[in-house]
Amino acid sequence: MLSPIKPASVFKHSKLFFVKKRTQLTLFVDQQLSAPIERIRLEFNPVQFALINSHVTLCRENELEDLERVMLNLKNLKQGCITIELGNPIRFLEGKGVMLPAIGDYAAFQKLRKNILHGLIENPRNSEPHITLLHPRNATCTDEIFEQIRQTDFPRSIDFCKISLIEQKLGKAWRVLEEFNLSPKNPPQTQSSAAQSHPVQELPPC
Hints:
By secondary structure, the chain is an alpha+beta fold. The protein has 6 helices and 9 strands; from the N terminus they run αβααβαβββαβαβββ. The chain has helices at 7-11, 31-44, 46-51, 67-75, 107-116, 143-150, and strands spanning 21-28, 55-59, 82-86, 90-92, 97-103, 130-134, 157-160, 162-169, 175-181. The strands form 2 sheets. Strands 3, 4, 5, 6 and 7 form a 5-stranded antiparallel beta sheet that branches. The chain has a 4-stranded antiparallel beta sheet with strand order 2-1-8-9, with no helix packed on it. A hairpin with a 4-residue loop joins β4 and β5 (97-103). The chain is globular.
């Protein structure tokens, strides 16, 4: 069990410490695939690990100002599950952060964003999907750490069949407010999948 993390210790050097509430749409990595990702996050970025599970951010807070319209679009969504192919880990922000970038064609991801933001943003920005392993806000990668990350066997392809509306208050852990299922690729499947490998609730807590 992780020790309680005080928001002030997490964000005292960040502008986000002063943000009372943030709301985003995210795609959580299924627990059947997230183990190697979460292991790296827990070892090298425990603060972010405690705040939120591994995920691909779908829409950020500045795109969700008219949340009522966004919710309507989500409930009327007709799109199916999307697949994101992942490349090798790369460093970013002067080498401090590490991510798994999407590669190949991720048009379905852009289409999903466009459908969600229909009537709100005429031409949503071309967001590049990725999974953050080390967030530069609260972790710093070194050459030694990056070499360990490079040797990790990460999933190369992930299906996402659920959109989660999440909220963060005062720098605490993100929590799921509501979830929206995308149409499965194989409807006969009856096995359900959990969105989180460790609950995105107010744990004691991307």
